[in-house]
């Protein structure tokens, strides 16, 4: 589920490229486990509703994205 959450954070960026969106779709389609994790993360995000705009939640998203970027630089991408 961590990878799904990282994809969601990356896709929430206003400067997300079409290539990144396609990579996320490929990742989700790569296995039933990925698809399930992706569905769970998206459902949770939808359930957050207005809370997603809370400054504390936004700060957590920023930290999560920075952490994901740092990990990606040190490990090969997940498929």
Give your account of this protein's structure.
The longest helix is centred in the C-terminal third of the chain and has 20 residues, at 55-74. The chain has 4 helices and no strands. With 79 residues, the chain is mostly helical. The protein has one domain (2-74). It is globular and about 35 Å long. Helix 1 (2-11) crosses helix 3.
Give the overall shape, derived from the CA principal axes: globular
Q: What's the number of structural domains? A: 1
Helix content: over 70%
The amount of beta strand, in percent, is under 5%
Number of helices: 4
Main sheet, how many strands, which sense, barrel?
none
Calculate the mean pLDDT score and round it. 86
Pattern of helices and strands: HHHH
What is the count of β-strands?
0
Radius of gyration, Cα only, in angstroms? 13 Å
Indicate the structural class.
Answer: mainly alpha
Unreliable stretches covering 5 or more consecutive residues? none
C-alpha termini separation? 14 Å
Task: Write out key terms for the chains shown.
79 residues; mainly alpha; 4 helices; globular
Itemize the secondary structure elements and their pairings.
Layout: H1 2-11, H2 18-29, H3 32-48, H4 55-74
Helix pairs in contact: 1-2, 1-3
In short:
This protein is mostly helical and 79 residues long.
């Amino acid at each position: 589920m961590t990878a799904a959450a990282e994809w969601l954070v990356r896709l929430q960026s206003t400067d997300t490229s079409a290539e990144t969106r396609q990579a996320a779709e490929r990742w989700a389609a790569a296995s039933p486990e990925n698809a399930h994790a992706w569905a769970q993360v998206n459902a949770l995000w939808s359930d957050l509703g207005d809370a997603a705009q809370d400054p504390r939640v936004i700060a957590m998203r920023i930290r999560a994205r920075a952490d994901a970027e740092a990990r990606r630089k040190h490990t090969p991408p997940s498929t």
